[in-house]
Write a structure and sequence with these properties.
Number of strands: 7
Number of helices: 3
CATH architecture: Alpha-Beta Complex
CATH class: Alpha Beta
Helix content: 25-40%
CATH topology: Peptide Deformylase
Distance between the termini: 23 Å
Strand content: 25-35%
Radius of gyration: 16 Å
Amino acid sequence: MNDLKVIVAPDIRLNQISKSINYIEKNISIVLDKMLECMYKNNGIGLAAPQVGILKRLIVIDCSNNKENKRPLKLINPEIISFSDELADYEEGCLSLPAQFAKVTRPNKIKLRYRNSKGDKIEKNFIGLEATCIQHEVDHLNGKLFVDHISKLRKNIIIKKLIKYKKKINTHG
């Protein structure tokens, strides 16, 4: 498998719903490792499979913010089973929306059900940045972007900037 490339919005693949993984074979582990590699290379804290053109329910995150002490999490078929009433604001960015940021309000705590790369079913609570990151990545699996959570005007401005950005990299890169 070659190096993965992050898809830049707007792109129809980022608006599609990803398919569940029914059987965890060896290549799923390889895909998750490649996704982590891609996420680290692009200085991200989360990456969903659709962002690299794979329409499967796979997510990798690492909110440790520490190059020496990484804490990567590989999530297969992640499903948020509960949200807290308490909300938190984060300035969100996205590898598929380079250099674009906006304040997004989301629940501060979530309970997540997922499978790890061994196939074990896990339920775990997440709080703060990790909870926000997981919600952001699960949105990708459902064909949503963080700009879908902000005003239409602000979203349109960001999308126009990305269209210009894509034209520039396609003519110069």
